[in-house]
Design a protein that fits this description.
- β9 and β10 form a beta hairpin.
- α5 crosses α6 and α8 packs antiparallel against α9.
- By secondary structure, this protein is of the alpha/beta class.
- The chain contains ten helices and 23 strands.
- The protein folds into two domains: 80 residues, Urease, subunit C, domain 1 (Roll); 276 residues, Metal-dependent hydrolases (TIM Barrel, Alpha-Beta Barrel).
- It has an eight-stranded parallel beta sheet with strand order 8-11-12-13-14-15-16-17.
- It is globular.
């Protein structure tokens, strides 16, 4: 049966419109039509003056729903994480694994491969080929020097599950970066102490994005602008940013947005409380830390990140939404998400003026 979402302000990805209905057929958007043109027999869903936007996309989330995936890379954990994330308004995401053991990687590969879900884009490997000087909360003993033979075996075993990797470009050769690209993996620079020139070389070799801008990387300095300065200058390179006001000051987000415009996108970098295993995250009021107090992850949802951009920076509402929808879709070269238009997947979030999620549609399924 066709479904019609009516009575809302619709953000199409390009503009806000009123007096229209979103028509859904199975898992696709059939049309955006005038309320008076809704076909007879369609199931009407009244959205009560809320806002309908494309479903949010998070390319870096480590856990939710009571599970940290790296501590429990099981089907049960993945199901609970996925359901929790969808209900928060994020209709597709990449689960991230921090620097880890081969055993954990293998379990994660198997879980994602044999338990596919329409909301799970795949795996984001954050490490292990990072710079120990900028490890952040990553475990020093598990950081590795990149070896082509080992990486090739890892990619073959993953069998397409790995969609993104964060590495330190100054620690990797052209052959290493190119190998990931050959397997269709989006290569990001992060946990890196790269100089400006080293970062620019990495971009030339195939690094196309930067992970959580300003966090765990060389800092912008007037004598060496480092990785942040390089991404400001490289007009084809994107970057994610954590908009919680803790990982990055809101004024810094505003400055970065003015420099990068459409190249800057949002991630949550959210973790889940975990008190055993390699990565122990202690829940604080508004963040997660390691037992020693080191900042280890956010308590963000993507809708909260959008709200923070609207209320605490000078980023307009429509642009903040694009930073959580269209722009991450572009990074992953997903051409049927991030907008509300005919033929696109029926991924939608319905929320009120206070950014409280009221309804979610993921792949045509309502939550």
């Amino acid at each position: 049966m066709l479904k019609a979402l009516t009575g809302a302000v619709i953000f199409t990805g390009e503009e806000f419109i009123s007096g229209k209905a979103v028509i859904i057929k199975h898992d696709r958007i059939e049309s955006v039509t005038d309320n008076g043109s809704i076909p007879v027999g369609v199931q009407i869903i009244d959205c009560n003056n809320f806002i309908i936007a494309p479903g949010l996309i998070d390319l870096q989330i480590a856990g939710a729903g009571g599970f940290l995936f790296s501590a429990n890379p099981s089907a049960e954990a993945l199901t609970s994480i996925t359901n929790s994330i969808i209900k928060s308004g994020t209709t597709c995401f990449q689960i991230v694994l921090p620097t880890n053991t081969n055993e954990v990687y293998r379990k994660a590969f198997s879980t994602l491969k044999y338990n596919p879900h329409h909301a799970v884009l795949g795996l984001h490997l954050e490490g292990p080929y990072i710079n120990p000087l900028r490890r952040g909360a990553h475990i020093t003993e598990l950081i590795r020097h990149p070896e082509k033979k080992e990486i090739k075996a890892l990619l073959k075993e993953a069998d397409g599950v790995i969609k993104m990797i964060t590495l330190a470009p100054e620690m990797c050769s052209f052959d290493i970066i190119n190998l990931f690209k050959e397997y269709g993996v989006v290569v990001c620079a992060g946990h890196s102490n790269a100089t400006f020139n080293e970062a620019m070389t990495g971009f030339k070799w195939g690094v196309s994005s930067v992970t959580h801008l300003f966090n765990a990387m060389s800092q912008f300095h007037h004598r060496d602008p480092g990785l942040p300065g390089a991404v400001f200058q490289a007009e084809s390179i994107s970057a994610s940013i954590i908009a919680d006001g803790i990982h990055v000051d809101y004024n810094t987000i505003s400055i970065a947005k003015k420099q990068m415009k459409e190249r800057l996108y949002l991630v949550s970098d959210a973790v889940e409380e975990n008190t055993s295993g390699a990565y122990m995250h202690i829940k604080q009021t508004d963040r997660f830390t390691l037992p020693d107090g080191t900042l280890s992850g956010s308590a963000l949802t993507m809708i909260k990140a959008v709200q923070n951009c609207v209320e605490n920076t000078d980023i307009p509402f429509d642009e903040a939404l694009r930073m959580a929808t269209l722009y991450p879709a572009r990074v992953m070269k997903i051409d049927d998400r991030g907008m509300i238009k005919p033929g696109f997947r029926a991924d939608l979030v319905v929320f009120d003026k206070n950014f409280e999620v009221k309804m979610v549609c993921s792949n045509g399924v309502f939550y």
